[in-house]
Amino acid sequence: MIEILAEKYVIKDLEGVFLVLYSFPVGCKPGRKRNFYRSFERFKKDHEGEAYFINRNAILCKKLSIAKAIEELARKSGGSARVYKVEADLTGSI
Question: Which residues share a beta bridge with 55?
Fold first, then answer.
């Protein structure tokens, strides 16, 4: 699912570090959240190192297309999401 969504954004793809913050509202059906996490885990297996969890509700991505696809997947799964471009990492861990 993420790969299909990512294809929409390839035209305006940028490389860099992008942060996806997402959340699911209280009362969101567990199946919808499970769909999001399963889709993301399948994607990670095929695209190792391109996106990974840094927190329960935060994912770092190396391409804008991937970040936008994850944002859209979260919304289709009943959640909300935002994508941010990371300009500087003050801890040096990226």
Answer: 58
Task: Report the percent of the chain where pLDDT is more than 90.
Answer: 33
Instruction: Tell me the helices (H) and strands (E) count for the chain, helix number first.
Output: 3, 4
**Tokens encoding 30:** 């567990």
Q: Could you tell me the two tokens for 35? A: 């769909």
Domains and CATH numbers, the chain: 2-85 (3.30.70)
Q: In 10 A of CB 36, how many CB atoms?
A: 24
Residue that is written with structure tokens 């969101």 in the block? 28
Q: Are 20 and 70 in contact (CB under 8 A)?
A: yes
Output 7 or 20, whichever has higher pLDDT: 20
Rg (CA), the chain: 13
User: Would strands 15-23 and 80-85 be described as parallel, antiparallel, or unpaired?
Assistant: antiparallel
Rounded distance between C-alpha atoms, residue 84 and residue 54, angstroms: 14
